[in-house]
Amino acid sequence: MKHGTDYRVLPFSEDTAAVLITGNHRLLLAPAGTARRLESGVDQLLPEERQAWERLRATAGFADEANRSRLAGSALSDGSDFAVNVNLTNVCNLACTYCFAEGGDYGRITEAMGEHSIAWIFDFIEKNAAPGQRVRFEFFGGEPLANFAVIEKICERARGIRERDGTEFVHRISTNLTLMPQGIEELFRAYRFIVSVSIDGGREVQDANRPSKNGKGSYDRIIRNLRRLREACGDGITLVARMTIATAEPCLKDSVLDLWELDLFDYFQIYPGVYPVETGTKVPIALTLGDRKLSEPQGIQYINHFLQPGIVEQFKDFLVHYPRLFDPGNRFKGVLEYERTVQMVTEGATALAFCSGGRTYYTHSPDGSISPCHRLVGDESFDVGTGAEGVTREHPEWRRTVDEHPVCGACWARYLCGGGCRQENHVATGDVNELNDESCQYQLMLAEEVLKMLARSQAGYRGQSRDRYDDLFVSCGRPVVPNGRPALDASTDFGAFQVLC
Hints:
Elements: E1 7-11, E2 16-21, E3 27-31, H1 32-40, H2 47-59, H3 66-72, E4 82-87, H4 116-128, E5 135-140, H5 148-165, E6 169-175, H6 184-190, E7 194-198, H7 203-209, H8 219-233, E8 238-245, H9 252-260, E9 267-272, E10 274-277, E11 283-285, E12 288-289, E13 292-293, E14 298-304, H10 311-321, H11 336-346, E15 349-351, E16 361-364, E17 369-371, E18 385-386, E19 390-391, H12 414-417, H13 422-429, H14 437-456, H15 459-462, E20 480-482, E21 498-499
Parallel strand pairs: 4-5, 4-16, 5-6, 6-7, 7-8, 8-9
Antiparallel strand pairs: 1-2, 2-3, 3-21, 10-14, 11-14, 12-13, 15-20, 16-17, 17-18, 18-19
């Protein structure tokens, strides 16, 4: 077994380190001296440590490669719902500073989705969802609530299908929640909506990052609507704070606490802001206005905010503070990306891919196009079909497994990460399967810091139920399945090594 490929040593205090076993996601604790020797190689362990390690190999299934076997034997339909991202409209009333959709229309969509698309969407589901597979709607835009009538009609049709043949549907919307169309409370309550709200923190940061297109702030309106929804729907809906962190001040922890203290949100999602700077020459971009070119192409590089000096420290500090947010007096149940990683370790599970894009997740847009990724709607070269015809182009590049990748296949975090975001790869390199170095660094940092947090945690935190995470479309529907690792005999002595999960 090789350090950095088959296992990873993660020191988190002066006297203790965590050790993750890549093959089945066992997490161990070891004294600092033992961990340093293990980092140099198994053959550097002291005789008694080596004996304990061999007992672990035999008892805990280190050599079974449970994750690799589970991935190799999986089907596309395993580990996630069949998901349809319904791109409802080309308009958005906010002017978010880091919008990847070019203000809502992706530089391509010129109209809202019409009712004729509804039949196409349900035909697509009937032809492509696996028998008995749950179906998820991801209502998206632009601002999807600007086309509320189509949302209502899709929900009504889904209800009829469920009553007819028992197909289970999940309804989730990604919204800025500045609009509250008539009937929204009744619809969200009736269909138990998961409502993911784009809000980055307190009033100062939200109004700076996500102002209205008229220049006014959006925070007060969103909070007013959140309170109205929570009061009307109670626990019949799930509220998720979808945070994009793109400023150094206020710090990450303070921005989260600003929203946590409202006690409105059940879950959080925390994304690093990714923005262009004119250093590097990988992606040529010309600034245009209609048919008029305003500037020649310039080389730009997309920078991940969480990898910047000082922000790395904010991220690590927040993970130290994170377990304190699980307060019985607050409805907070976790940060989705962190808890999904914890689940894979505590329960023994593997990621079959980074996301479900091009596997069991497709975006349907108002112009009739079908794309494997909602972020790539603006690029026609990624279209894989049309609403009228369904999928018309094979797209194996979206289905390459992490074990088939020449770089990812040797990474210790490969069965936690699943291989990286293909859209971020494309933006940085022009190839969906050529790694974006910054995205890769961020995923590794996230995995390391979450594992250290887990190693420091108490048994109560490790034992929390995480059943709900299959509902919440974590990491664009990252498909995750149990890896079948063997149960451990608690009475076995593993010497210097303590099996945490």
